[in-house]
Write a structure and sequence with these properties.
Length: 121
């Protein structure tokens, strides 16, 4: 099965996606900014013996992104799927106005890719 990295897994869609994919047999690296908020995920992991490893991953901080992906790649040597569920917060989020005009779409995606460590400006 695949190696899956999911951001924003402390609650909601990210948590549900992590549990669902692990139940399907995938190895999941569950990224979350605040590890103290992972109790629901830890409970599911323990209760069902799921193949989920929680990693600290703050998509607003390049150091956390770099560190998390280096850690994951050191353990697995590959990532098959990335689910970018985490939002952007703070000043980065306040600079994005919705709805996005069509002409700003690429600028917005460039910002999101950069924030998530997938593109360096």
């Amino acid at each position: 099965m695949g190696i899956v990295v999911i951001t924003g897994t402390s609650s909601g869609i990210g948590l549900a996606t992590a549990v669902t994919l692990a139940r399907a047999g995938h190895t999941v690296f569950a990224g979350m900014r605040n590890l103290d908020r992972g109790d629901d995920l830890r409970e599911a992991i323990s209760k069902e013996s799921l193949s989920i490893k929680i990693v600290q991953l703050d998509v607003d901080d390049d150091n956390y992104v770099d560190g998390a992906f280096k850690q994951i790649l050191k353990e697995t040597s590959r990532i098959d799927v990335l689910v970018n569920n985490a939002g952007v917060s703070g000043t980065a989020a306040s600079s994005i106005s919705l709805p996005l005009p069509v002409s700003s779409g690429w600028r917005h995606w460039g910002h999101m890719l950069h924030r998530n460590g997938l593109w360096k400006a």
